Every structure is written in structure tokens, then in C-alpha cells.
């Protein structure tokens, strides 16, 4: 039986691209079993069975305000935000808008927001790759502004995933709202001024923006895993979240 902690910050875990709150459900359950208040949510356009028109209509601002609105419904305690991959763009903007409510963030292999730039602006290794990805999203293979999920071949390149993990992801993935990765970020202050922990799957995956003296309020850890640590190393993910929350309590 867990003992509920009424003083610890609440934890809100935001899914990355192509996923809903289901990706964080086991993590949320374990955090709650430890007496922490944790929740996740499915971002707009990623609901099961979302129709094509709805997916293509969702903008980045919708995701940011959706998360901010949840936090504003919790006026009694501060919040720790947890992001993964795409959702780091969302988490960073919410933390910027609600600095008095979001006391820290934790990013697992996240893209980080840079004012005036979109996720695709920092995608891939060269301009040609970024241009191809942008074109694929805009055309959507029949559904404009749909970002297609990774194909099975891409998941085969993730050695930390079991065959069951791959089947699980492929069955649950849904097209991601394309505008959210094409829209530019809006920040009042650089993300480097936030208090946060970045967990990279390898040293080469630490964002360039954190490789500067300006990011003095960021802690950086390396977790030897692939891109889905909540599946590959669930205990370590839970321990990191718990450690961060306890350090703030």
C-alpha cells in the first residue's frame, strides 16, 4: 500500500510524437504506488481514431495551452513536467509560460525549444534531410500535415526494444499533427535559463543548446538506452523521476 505524499510536487508526463498517454501509463502507475501524484495526457490530434481533418488542424500552440490548462487546474502544488522526444518542445514552452508553477522539468532524449525555430529546423543531419522530412509532412502521403509514424524497419534499429515492445508501439502509433513540428516556438526566455534535468541516451544526443555555459541550471545524465527508455529501462526512468521530485520536496 502506498502512502500519499501531500507535499511533493505533482508530476505530469507528456508523450512524444505518435503516442498518447498509454506510453506513460506503467510509469504513472509505479509513481502512484510510491505515493506520488502523477498523471499523463494525450495531446490533441493523437486521440485514438482521430479523424484526418482533426489531426491536420492541430497547431503547436494547441499542445502548449492544453498542458498549461491542466497545470492551472492544480493550484495547490507545484509541478514537475516530464517530456520525451517531441514533447520537450511543448514542455519547454509551458515551463517558460508558467515559471511559478513548473519548478523543474525532466527531459528524456527531448528536442528543446529555441525561440523562432521549429522542431524540423533542427531535424536530421543536413538541410536536404530536413527538407525531405518537411515535404513528407506537408504532403502527408494523402493526408496533408500528417507526420507518419516510424516504419517497422526504424524500430528494428532500436536494439533495446524487445519484439513485444516493437509490436506494442507499431500497434498503438498514430499519425502526428504535422503543424506542431513545423510551427515556430515562442519563448520569452531562453530554455537554458530553466531548471531542468536532461537524460540523453548517448553523449552525442545532448542538444547543442545545453553544451554552453548558459545552461548552468541544467543537470545532464547519460542513460545507456534507445529512444524509448520507459520501455527499455523502466525502473531507471522511475528512479530518475523520483530522485528529482524528492530533491524538490
Query: How many E strands?
Result: 8
Q: End-to-end distance, in Å?
A: 21 Å
Q: What characterizes the major β-sheet?
A: 6 strands, parallel
Estimated structural class: alpha/beta
Provide mean pLDDT, rounded. 94
- Spatial strand sequence of the major β-sheet: 2-1-3-4-7-8
CATH class: Alpha Beta
Count of individual domains: 1
Pfam families: Abhydrolase_6
GO molecular function, one term: hydrolase activity
Keywords: Hydrolase
Protein name: Alpha/beta fold hydrolase
Give descriptors for this structure:
249 residues, 36% helix, hydrolase activity, two-stranded antiparallel sheet, AB_hydrolase_fold, alpha/beta, Alpha/beta fold hydrolase, Rossmann fold, six-stranded parallel β-sheet, hydrolase
Amino acid at each position: 500500500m502506498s502512502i500519499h505524499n501531500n507535499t511533493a510536487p505533482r508530476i505530469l508526463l507528456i508523450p512524444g510524437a505518435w503516442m498518447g498517454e498509454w506510453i506513460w501509463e506503467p510509469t504513472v502507475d509505479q509513481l502512484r504506488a510510491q505515493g506520488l501524484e502523477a498523471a499523463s495526457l494525450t495531446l490533441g490530434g493523437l486521440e485514438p481514431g482521430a479523424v484526418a481533418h482533426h489531426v491536420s488542424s492541430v497547431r503547436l500552440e494547441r499542445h502548449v495551452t492544453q498542458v498549461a490548462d491542466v497545470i492551472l487546474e492544480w493550484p495547490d502544488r507545484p509541478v514537475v513536467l516530464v517530456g520525451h522526444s517531441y514533447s520537450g518542445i511543448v514542455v519547454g514552452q509551458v515551463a517558460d509560460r508558467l515559471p511559478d508553477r513548473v519548478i523543474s522539468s525532466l527531459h528524456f532524449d527531448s528536442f528543446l525549444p529555441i525561440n523562432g525555430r521549429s522542431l524540423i529546423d533542427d531535424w536530421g543531419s543536413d538541410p536536404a534531410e530536413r527538407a525531405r522530412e518537411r515535404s513528407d509532412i506537408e504532403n502527408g502521403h494523402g493526408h496533408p500535415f500528417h507526420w507518419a509514424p516510424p516504419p517497422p524497419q526504424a524500430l528494428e534499429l532500436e536494439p533495446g526494444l524487445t519484439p513485444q515492445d516493437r509490436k506494442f508501439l507499431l500497434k498503438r502509433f498514430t499519425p502526428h499533427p504535422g503543424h506542431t513540428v513545423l510551427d515556430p516556438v515562442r519563448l520569452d526566455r531562453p530554455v537554458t535559463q530553466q531548471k531542468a534535468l536532461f537524460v540523453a541516451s548517448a553523449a552525442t544526443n545532448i542538444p547543442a543548446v545545453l553544451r554552453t555555459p548558459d545552461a548552468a541550471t541544467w543537470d545532464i545524465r547519460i542513460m545507456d538506452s534507445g529512444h524509448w527508455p520507459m520501455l527499455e529501462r523502466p525502473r531507471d526512468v522511475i528512479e530518475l523521476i523520483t530522485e528529482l521530485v524528492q530533491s524538490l520536496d
